[in-house]
Design goal:
- This is Mu-like prophage protein gp16.
- Pfam families: GemA (PF06252).
- It comes from Hydrogenophilus thermoluteolus (Pseudomonas hydrogenothermophila).
- It is a single chain.
- By secondary structure, this protein is mostly helical.
- It has two domains: 55 residues, no CATH class; 72 residues, no CATH class.
- 59% of the residues lie in helices and 0% in strands.
- The chain has seven helices and no strands.
- The chain starts with 6 loop residues before the first helix and ends in a 5-residue tail after the last helix.
Length: 160
């Protein structure tokens, strides 16, 4: 079920997106490259309504001072969100350390400054993974995945 914006609303969002890009210091070439990376189209006119709204929210998340006449997206797996592999690695490390949900939230807050893990970006997730791995190693916990452990066991003494 796709969203359908009125022509006036779409025009307003197009203007907001251009204003936001200027607020963020993007020149036209940079803006077009970012738009192509985000939605596969250099021109905002080629964005679907959903992509246009999502792009405006992404620009706002990056610091643009704009008001968007559409509801904010909830979490999700959009542009810049942690990958499923990152979430799986985080879950494995949290389990190996025996962290509670509150303990994990506190760790994320100390590591990234974010109040909730669901607001992490891919870069934030990388910082959290690095921190959890270091903490686990300092406690003598094996941080390798079960697959890696099995491969190294088959190969011998871990010379992979």
């Amino acid at each position: 079920m796709g969203m359908s914006l009125s022509a006036d609303r779409r025009r307003a969002l197009l203007g907001l997106a251009h204003k936001a890009a200027i607020d963020l210091g993007m020149d036209e070439q940079t803006r077009r490259m970012a738009q192509a990376a985000f939605a596969g189209h250099e021109s905002l006119r080629d964005f679907s309504d959903e992509q246009l709204v999502a792009w405006c929210w992404e620009l706002k998340r990056r610091g643009a001072d704009i008001g968007i006449p559409a509801p904010a997206p909830l979490g999700g797996s959009g542009f810049g969100r942690p990958t499923p592999a990152q979430w799986a690695t985080i879950e494995r490390l949290v389990a190996s350390l025996g962290l509670s949900d509150d303990g994990f939230r506190s760790f994320v807050k100390r590591t990234t400054g974010l109040d909730l893990p669901r607001f992490m970006t891919r870069a934030d997730a990388s910082k959290v993974i690095t921190g959890l791995e270091r903490w686990a190693r300092s406690r003598g916990v094996d941080t390798r995945s079960k697959t890696r452990q099995a491969i190294e066991a088959l190969m011998g003494d871990g010379d992979v």
